[in-house]
Amino acid sequence: MTTCCKKLATVLTIALAIVFIVTLLDIYSATQIWQPVGGWEGATYKSVEQPFLTLFWAFVYFMIFLCALTYYLVRKDKSEAIAITATSYILISSGLEDLLFYKLQNIPLENMTWFINTPMGFTSKYILGLDTVTPIGLIINIILFGIAGILLAKYLITKW
Fold first, then answer.
1. How far apart, in whole angstroms, are the C-alpha atoms of residue 63 and residue 9?
2. Secondary structure in 3-state letters for 85-131
3. For an engineered disulfide with 124, which of 9, 94, 115, 130 has Cβ 3.0 to 4.6 Å away?
4. Total Cβ atoms within 10 A of residue 63
């Protein structure tokens, strides 16, 4: 395996691990915080939804930054650290974290109208021309964003 392939494999492994950790945090918040107080449809969640989501995603992006910074401090490679940051963000934006959220809890994938104006809705809205994110639209979106993430990581590792 060439050095570039090893670096790419390392970057992708770390990015996927970050996505998996974010999924576990999301599952924890859903099952341990929100379900006991009425779930997403309950008054408690509705009253704190926006501040909670702002805090949750700020924590996620800070965690991505800390992982990349730690990688940089250990390996002294800016391109790989930036690739970890960008690839993690792209994979999370693709909907991979949401797909894992559903699959790890055995929740069936259904149309997800709340995703339509997000990066997760890109394929369903602009390529398939739908007004909701369908399961197939989400999966195609993950594949397209995943390819983009891999290509960006490879470019950063080899050209930067």
1. 20
2. HHHHHHHHHHCHHHHHHHHHCCCCCCCEHHHCCCHHHHHHHHHCCCC
3. 130
4. 15
DSSP line for 12-38: HHHHHHHHHHHHHHHHHIIIIIIGGGT
Taking every pair of Cα atoms in the chain, the longest distance, rounded to a whole number of angstroms, is: 55
State the amino acid at position 40 in one-letter form: W
pLDDT tens digit sequence for 20-66: 999 999 999 888 877 787 776 778 777 888 888 899 999 999 999 99
* d(C-alpha 103, C-alpha 97), whole Å: 10
**Alpha-carbon radius of gyration of the chain:** 17
Q: How far, rounded to the nearest angstrom, does the alpha carbon of residue 127 sit from its chain's CA centroid?
A: 20
pTM metric for this prediction: 0.87
